[in-house]
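Inputs:
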Amino acid sequence: MTTTDTTAEVDDSIRNGVDTRTLFATLDAVKQAPQAAMFQFRAHNQWVSGTHNRGTIDDYFGVGEERAHERSFVFDADHPAVLVGTDHGPTPAEFLLHALAACLTAGLANIAAARKVKLTEVRSTVTGDIDLNGILGLDPEVRNGYQQLTVHFTVKGDAPAEKLRELVEQSRARSAVYDVITNGVPVTIEVDTP
Amino acid sequence: MTTTDTTAEVDDSIRNGVDTRTLFATLDAVKQAPQAAMFQFRAHNQWVSGTHNRGTIDDYFGVGEERAHERSFVFDADHPAVLVGTDHGPTPAEFLLHALAACLTAGLANIAAARKVKLTEVRSTVTGDIDLNGILGLDPEVRNGYQQLTVHFTVKGDAPAEKLRELVEQSRARSAVYDVITNGVPVTIEVDTP
């Protein structure tokens, strides 16, 4: 094996910015030690004023120990003026749409890499239709949340259209956020009043 | 009515940073024209590399017309290195937790203002337990999404503990994000492959 061969091999293992060798090694490691896959993610939030509040995402638990992101990520949320807020950030309901697009897109890149498809462009828009008569308490027939969500993807890569669609479908079938948003998850709320 | 009286009246209508006069006026306006409450929120996303992608939140539809936030909000999402990413942002699943905390907190501030409770501090942490054997495709018995979420609030204000708990409960009962996350919503995925 020449140096050129080695370089070619390394290049081939990195596709769509995904190091597939590390990806498959991670899968093998978790197969041997399934407990490594038990994660706890967290978001912290501090109220600022009115509908304006600030979220911080930094610490999490995974692969057997407490961990931290490389830096703290801070995100303001608010309502726009038309919803009696100060527009210092997106509405919470918009962050939900962002989470869905991000999850499907990350999965798509991983799955394409594993299946040796090179992606050149992935764009998406998630739209969510919501009737605020629900949260405003004005119509008991209307739910608080979205009536429906639509994700519209544009995907380009070195594979036929049908193959690209299959990659999106597989990403959907393995998406954590899609699962929660379509199937729901139990939520417990605890309140301290010191 | 003296100037002092007028000032006192104005001050009284703004509580917790919420202009309750505008809040109640908005409620009355929507009662008269329920169609104003039909909103469509949106999130746009562009893949960067690997699990790194970038979301933009700016345009939405509401109160009968296309609107835009005061500025575009841009958020990177990624996986940490331990999940074969580059940690340029939180994971999509963490954004979901942020959305839940932000929604419950915004609602709490509004509801407290409407019920004449002055809040002095609201902090929360949302934790989500997830077994990644699901999304890794290693255990068909394990779901892709969170097993369960817990929201822990610390709430201080000028009301008894029981009243503060009631405010959180009412916020839960009227939260768009809580509704979607606990009950689910149908998601349609469309794919263009130009």
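The radius of gyration of chain A is 21 Å. Flag for discussion at group meeting.
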